[in-house]
Prior knowledge:
By secondary structure, chain A is α+β, with helices and mostly antiparallel strands. Chain A has one domain. Helix content of chain A is 14%, strand content 15%. Chain A has helices at residues 30-35, 48-51; strands at residues 7-10, 22-25, 68-70. Chain A is flat and about 30 Å long. By secondary structure, chain B is mainly beta. Chain B has three helices and 13 strands. Chain B has helices at residues 159-170, 191-198, 205-209; strands at 3-13, 28-33, 36-37, 40-44, 52-53, 56-67, 71-76, 120-122, 129-134, 144-153, 177-179, 182-183, 186-187. In chain B, strands 1, 5, 6, 8 and 10 form a five-stranded antiparallel beta sheet that branches. Chain B has a three-stranded antiparallel beta sheet with strand order 2-9-7, with no helix packed on it.
Amino acid sequence: MSKVSKCVFKLTYPVTVPQGVTFSVTNFSESLFYANAPIFPEDKRGGAMYKLGIRPIMEKFLQNNYLFALERAP
Amino acid sequence: MIRRRICQYKPLPLVDATGSAIVISPDSYYSEVLLLDPRNPSKEILYLGSATNAGYPWIFHGSIGIKPEYIYMYPRFPSGQDIPGKFPNLDPIRPQRGDDFGYVNSEKSPYECPTDYVEYVIPPGFKIGFEFYNKDTERSWQPVLNVLFAVYWFQILTPDKHGKLIARIATREVPAAFLTVGFGDTPISMGETLMKDWKVKPLSLDEAASLGR
């Protein structure tokens, strides 16, 4: 994911401000940035992370299989 | 497993023992902290203070999602011990320098979807610590976490009563999840206190597989 610390938007139409005015957003909201970012980038199924064997932890919570073993220390 | 409950703390902005926000300067390190409740920082979130609850042994199992992307998190389990994820032949991981291995970040465990990239199994009495590094060279950031865990209450299988079932689990004839306390290369001993409280004696896989014959 590329770094975003500053964005400049140019408004052209429809606006009531003089043509060519630009607005500089210097305090870019982290929450806004993440709201627009992919949640699990391309990895839901068949993506790079998933193919590596990394799973959402919710899939690992014991649901249908109620047996588990705790590995013993050597 | 007898019962299961999902526990989620989201968002969890990182705070110190006084409840103050932990904001990490650009290209800087923050030393080991426990995950504390911002409402009452004397309380640690990932801690089970008693060996049993409601008459059953219990454990935590889960993961942690991270944001923003610039934050590298280095878990230590138990607190103060080694960091997992080291290439076997390399020198120890140095969170103080922001080493580029042994960390978890938002790519490996996204805030909105914590993954099993590092999967935590935490028995009663164990504490887990975290160190952080801000890789952003221009801005300070406060780590924000999505702590997503399940608490399992369970019945312990004993060789005298459940020998055949234990053997079939050990030989994978009966499907069961194998959970590791600690990390893959260094499973952690449950310790004498927990063995006594849970009334258990851990077996090796070979010992378990030979039961019921």
